[in-house]
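Worked example 2:
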Amino acid sequence: MPSIARHLRPALAGIALGLCTLPAWAVELVMVEQAGCHYCARWNAEIGPIYPKTEEGAYAPLRRVELGSDEMEKLSLTRRVNFTPTFVLVDAAGAELGRLEGYPGEDFFWGLLDRMLQDQTDYGEPS
């Protein structure tokens, strides 16, 4: 038995080291939505399926929150959300860094999101 443990120790150490180097999400993109929202449905159809596969989605994973839900109370917003969808960029503590109100269409969404990420985070800076 001791020889098995001796052989497993380096593998386990490697796994532990690998887990330690996984990125902690520094920011999230919170999508505030509500049932019956036409623009939410458009975003879901046009952007929703690809968002997690993009650099932006990897950097700022999406979390969906229903307007008026208890989840909204956990966010530290600078002002009330009045329109859906509203995309709020939050830090790890849930504090608002920036927001996009409404969905202007696929062509504009990516540029606005990219600008917000660059202005409010270290997104796009060389490592």
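DSSP finds five helices and four strands in the chain. The two ends are 44 Å apart (CA to CA).
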